Amino acid sequence: MSGGSFWRGMVLGVLVGVAAVFMVNPQLKSETRAGLARFRQGLRGRAGRIFSRAQQEVDQAIDQVTS
Predict the structure, then answer these.
(1) DSSP string for 30-62
(2) Global pTM?
(3) Rounded distance between C-alpha atoms, residue 62 and residue 2, angstroms
(4) CA 30/CA 14 separation, integer angstroms
(5) pLDDT by residue (tens digit) across 41-53?
């Protein structure tokens, strides 16, 4: 068995195990969803701040070029 094949099998086994845990424990599934929702909201806020900062820098650069 090659090393790559071993790791693919390992990853597949972990994914199947995680899916089995979620099927057995529905509360864990809802907690995970809530955690992922919080993570998504945080990521959305961070992306918005980065976009706003980039937009300000572009506006400043345009002002410098046109002045």
Answers:
(1) HHHHHHHHHHHHHHHHHHHHHHHHHHHHHHHHH
(2) 0.49
(3) 55
(4) 20
(5) 999 999 999 999 9
